[in-house]
Every structure is written in C-alpha cells, then in structure tokens.
Amino acid sequence: MAVKKILILAGDYVEDYELMVPFQMLEMVGHQVDVVCPGKRSGAVVRTAIHDFEGDQTYSEKRGHNFALNADFDKVQGEDYDALVIPGGRAPEYIRLTPKVLDLVRHFASAGKPIASVCHGAQVLTAAGVVQGRRINCYPAVAPEVGLAGGTYVELKMTEAITDGNFVTAPAWPAHAAWIRQFLAVLGSKIEA
What we know:
The radius of gyration is 15 Å and the shape is globular. Helix 3 crosses helix 4. Helix 5 (143-148) links the parallel strand 8 (135-136) and strand 9. It has one domain: 3-Layer(aba) Sandwich (Rossmann fold). It has helices at residues 16-28, 91-95, 99-111, 122-128, 143-148, 176-187, and strands spanning 5-9, 14-15, 32-36, 45-52, 60-68, 83-86, 115-118, 135-136, 152-153, 162-164, 167-170. By secondary structure, the protein is an alpha/beta fold. It has a six-stranded mixed beta sheet with strand order 3-1-6-7-11-10, sandwiched between helices.
C-alpha cells in the first residue's frame, strides 16, 4: 500500500472522537496524518468536546481532551496532501471563517482528491461552495445548509456513511466504522487480513 499524506482541519472544541479516532486509525493503516488549526503551530493543543446522544432533542456536550497538533497551519499547502478530513464539533462553525481553510477545501475538491467530512464538518464544505450537485450526509441540524449550498442531503442512520465520488460523509462518530472503511476505499488503501 502506498502511504498517503492526509490533512485534518481542526480547531478548539472539535469533536473528540471525530478527531482522535480517525487520526489514530489512519495512522494505524500506515498513512501520514497532519492535524492543523488556524492560528496555531505544531505542538500547540486544541481542546476537544465530547458530543453524546443521550435522548435529548440534540446532543449533549462535555469537555474532552487536549489534542497536540503536529503541523503548522500557516505552512500547509493542499498540493502536499493526498486527502482531507474535516471532523465535526464546534470547530467547523468558526474555522470556516478562515479564507485559507476554504481555499484548502476548494483545492481538494477541484483536484478530485478524497475528502471526508463528519457531522458539522459539512459546514466547512458548504462555506467553501463545494457541495453543489453532491449527495452529502452530516449531522441532521446541518442539512438545511447542505440544501442551500446546492447539495442533496441524504438521510442515513447514525451508523452509516455515503460516498459520492471523492466525497465521503457521515452524520457523527457512531458512523466511524462505515465512513473510515469507505474513505480507505476511496484512498485506494487495503488492509490485509
């Protein structure tokens, strides 16, 4: 398997499981994974939030862990990476206000490189204007943004994911097994049993 270089866009109060688990899983299969945050350098931390589904009208939110970034946001160039991952949580609502974040997303979309988005990560995709004509899943509360940006929201169970070309999207962390499996397929990665 050829090692792929994958970029993850994070920020303070990114969803804990949606950052930590994909980071570890993608490294486990041999890929290089760089995690960046606007305004922060390698070695700085982002605070995470744990979102849980406990029977309320929406998810609950608790303080998660500190995650140490391993690359400098200001130095990353889309051309240096093979794929992009955008986790959810609270971070997407404000990192999408950073022009370079949107430029990075547009680079991956226009180059046809694999893009995975989970939960509120779709807010970054819609702000970048890359969901037009795409079948996208996300946390249900973000579905109106997908429609307004010209995408088609596809309703799925919380454990499911959808692939549309180079886009792999899912509703939240309970779908990790599904979206990571689909993302590895889009990447051309194979796990030998």
